[in-house]
Amino acid sequence: MAFDQSSSKKITRGTLTRDALISVILYALPVVALVIWFTYTGETPWKNPVRDYAHVSAPAFLKFLEPIFKNLKSWGFIALALGLGVLEFALGLYDNKWTPTERKIDIVCFLAPKFLVPPVVAYFSLTLLPTLLPGFANVFSWVPFWGGFFLIAVADDLTQYWYHRLHHQIPFMWRFHRTHHSAPYMGMAMASRQNFIYTIFFSQTYLTATLIYLGLGYPALFVTAIKSLITMTAHSSIAWDKPFYKYRILHPIAWVLERLISTPATHHAHHADSADDGIGNYKGNFGNMFFLWDVIFGTGLITRQYPSSYGIKFYKEEEWYAQFLWPIFKSKKEGSELAANGPEVGDEVETTPELVSA
Questions:
Q1: Mean pLDDT of the 326-335 span
Q2: N-term to C-term CA, the chain
Q3: Do 65 and 58 form a contact (C-beta atoms < 8 A)?
Q4: Is Oxidoreductase tagged as a keyword (predicted)?
Q5: Which of 157, 308, 311, 302 is nearest to 241 (CA)?
Q6: Mean pLDDT throughout 138-144?
Q7: Which residue, 234, 220, 243, is CA-closest to 141?
Q8: Distance between CA atoms of 97 and 277, rounded to whole angstroms?
Q9: In a domain? residue 286
Q10: Is residue 266 part of a domain?
């Protein structure tokens, strides 16, 4: 079953307005759920928020998972990524496409943010937030874990959906996201392959830091860890979802999974270099953790098949510094849209749907 394929449709201002209104409703759902819950139970924990900092530790039923998620957020994520990368190579899934140029880009994009982002986030968390929101530290610590988890999962991932979608639908913003789509292969390294500006201004980073400051630390930790697992495996060249499509008994599970979260099949379609085969959907399938947003906004395409090729058709194999540090450093490759006098976005390859008046 396929949903509307956005690559065949123009995005009108009316469509954007409708989707923005739907987004407001979605953002409000966790808050409405909390209000209904507290009304039903008669509890008023916000009247005495200091009595119990609920998120100083994980809730009892998740205590046994706490060390896993704590480590996954730090060194565990790097270890898992490296392990997954080694497995991909052992299985020969890169198909000899990891050239020296691609290798440099992937390694730089994977390692550099580990040094660039922490100081920015530390400044934002320790200096800007207390200045902008004085007295609000741990103000929402009374929110139950499930409520915080629901709130952060929606706020974080829906915001990232829009951040991602706009980088495809606004030509100027596309250049900052182009690096993520330039590789002619899929693999673990793709999850972090981004231009540094896209990474520094990544919406999830600041939203998560703000929610932690407000007292939702543990829900944020769990959401971030789960999201990291989903996005990494969705980019991986290991097609873990294929058994769900192969065996009829697993089809009901597949139906739910592919509409709820990003799977290799749905996200690989987003990285296809063409939509002509009815499988690729590089102008849709924007979901990161949740594919549900694509279902709701009609930007999703589900085929349970994998594209035959990935990347950008007119890719010039630009230098690692041009892809990672554009616009500070330009490419020297003739005809590249990252070059000093390169073509305008869309002159060579159709990367974004046209934004038109309603």
A1: 91
A2: 29
A3: yes
A4: yes
A5: 302
A6: 85
A7: 220
A8: 22
A9: no
A10: no
Whether 132 is in a domain gets the answer yes
Helices (H), 44-144: 66-71, 77-90, 100-123, 129-132
User: Can you read off the two tokens belonging to residue 249?
Assistant: 């008994």
* Tally of domains within the chain: 1
CA atoms within 13 Å, Cβ hemisphere of 218: 21
Adjacent-strand bridge partners of 251: none
* Dist CA 38 CA 34 (whole Å): 6
Contact 25, 142 (CB under 8 A): no
Closest CA to 109 of 164, 174, 178, 190: 190
210 has pLDDT over 90 = no
Q: Report residue 334: phi and psi, to 5°.
A: -65, 135
Q: Which distant-in-sequence residues (6+ apart) come within 8 Å of 101 by Cβ?
A: 317, 319, 320
When computed from its CA atoms, the radius of gyration of the chain, rounded to whole angstroms, is 21
- In one-letter notation, the amino acid at residue 117 is V
Q: Give the pLDDT confidence score for residue 145 in this predicted structure.
A: 86
Does residue 143 lie in a domain region? yes
What is the spatial distance between Cα 35 and Cα 150, in angstroms, rounded to a whole number?
Answer: 13
Query: How many residues are given for the chain?
Result: 358
- Domain, as residue range, for 118: 10-40+66-238+319-356
Q: Which two tokens stand for residue 99?
A: 């050239």
Residue 27 pLDDT exceeds 80: yes
